[in-house]
Amino acid sequence: METRNEFVSLTPVHPGRILQMELNEREIKQNLLAEQLGIAPTNLSNYINGKRNFTADFALKLEDTLGIPAIHWVNMQANYDLTKARIKRTERINPARHAAML
After folding, report:
1. Distances (CA, A) of 78 to 15, 36, 65, 97
2. What is the largest CA-CA distance in the chain?
3. DSSP letter for each residue of 85-97
4. Neighbours of 95 (CB within 10 A)
């Protein structure tokens, strides 16, 4: 049996932060992207600010609009969710270890 030790980041990065960086790089305003996606600007803002999770449907809209494959957005959301779950588990199982990680 093989044991693998891998570094696991305990700093979750919501895909909305990545989307914001992409918009900044391309110099695209949020209102314009919201219009192109066919969603309200407030909804887009919620995605960008981590208040909404990236769904498969939203990821496909981003793929169609920005050309970034939907699987990337879905994977980023899954990694974000998994990292948050790991943090929660560490806090619950071993509070001293969690405090040492901070």
Report:
1. 10, 25, 21, 24
2. 53
3. HHHHHHHHH-HHH
4. 10
What are phi and psi for residue 91, nearest 5 degrees? -60, -40
Quick check: 3 pLDDT over 80? no
Q: Which residue type is seen at 93?
A: I
What domains lie within the chain, and their CATH numbers? Answer: 15-101 (1.10.260.40)
Query: CA nearest 49: which of 25, 78, 14?
Result: 14
Between CA 20 and CA 90 the distance in angstroms is 29
Contacts of 92 (CB under 8 A, 6+ apart): none
Structure pTM?
0.81
